[in-house]
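Q: What structure does this chain adopt?
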Amino acid sequence: MRLTETLEKIKAQHLVSFFMPGHKMGRKIRDYFPLSYENDITEIPGADYLHDPTGAILETEMLMSQLYGSLESKILVGGSTVGILSMILGSTTRGDAIIVNRNAHKSVYHAIEMGGLNPVYLIPDMDQTLDIPVNLSASRMEALIKSAPGVKVCLLTYPTYEGICYDVKAIIDVCHRHGIVVLVDEAHGAHLMLSEALPPSTLALGADIAVQSFHKTLPALTQTACLHFGKNHLLNNRQVEGVRWHLAALQTSSPSYLLMGSVDSMLSLLKDQGERLMQYLMTAIANFECRMDDLSYLAIKRYNGMDATKLILMPKDDAMQFGYDGNWLSETLREHFGIQVEYATDTFCLLMTSIANNREDFEKLIGSLTVIDGLIDKVVAQKVDGTQKMPKALNGQHPKKEVTAYMTQPEVVYNPSEAKLKETERCCVTEAAGKVSCSYIIPYPPGIPILVPGERITGDKIAAIEKYRKQLMSLPENGMEVIK
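A:
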């Protein structure tokens, strides 16, 4: 089936969207900008120029800066990825060391490779049940800085994909005391400034640069994002100009005016209704969570200070022991109730909400979960006599509760750019222990590498590769690339 046919087929399913993009199948965005092919133009007179704006685009960026409280904001049409690449490459010099939280997105690692940088990893604390990072420590950052003198730049991820937040201000303050520039991948935080009930944006906490994805959590088209310079940033002139140069070099010279138009319309929506719509969303989520308390086998997991617009939906242990895991729950919601989640694992489903979700979405969700909860209850009540068909996901087995291997401190033999220059060979995964990787091994979602080029392959990393094999983006059937 061709792409256009596939898109029309999915559109006809009228899915209830608890996945990105944040416009939820076109809601809200069309109220301010009814997209049409006639709006698809290039840099003709009067339309301004993205890479040196003096007119309409500049006005949009100035409104963005005003709403977000930045010194200056730049529209991105290549997603947060191009912003992350530009801020890292622009603020560093080849051979520099850079502190990076190990649970960083793959674009961060690509910037490290492209820039010939030496990563120094800040390892997060993990929730060993859900296998997700839940905290980064300021004291650990302090110790890391002392062990790696000369570091001038740090990259932090906040919030995480799952909406987990931590005391990022304490880490920013530690870095600034040592003269270290703080870059933040805030791709999942473009909506945070809409409510004081949400965690604060790092722009309000002293980040030097923050990159945000509009399309993830707000009503804007996919690929739209922004880069903000903090009001009191520590970057020198060379670094600022380096970031600007990379933005112009890495983004297309023919940016889509439909994408940029959707950003402008989204900003108008936020200015006119943003806080009211976010309050409505927060109330709807609170009501939904109260009704979830009535369910016996399904629950919402919350962490202190997390982004409330992210919902971590998980089967309880009583359901898990009968094979009802997160993947089964995701498939059941899609196939039988027309509800699409963001992603699923053995232990949970992640649902992404936005100000474009309405009351009917949450009613459909709680109604569907109530039915599913009742179905699980019938199986549990019958205590499964051995002849009853089990759900296909786990065949009655508990998922392993273990920390993901890529969240341990790796042995870095070469930096990624050095590793890519080495002579390589293909090796079976099961025989790769002790060798040095020359490729990225990345489960997607969430897009966080198990292995980065130049790292020693250990038994726990091989176990992680096998565990996430179905989610891996780049593992050929004939094995993996290693350095000879």
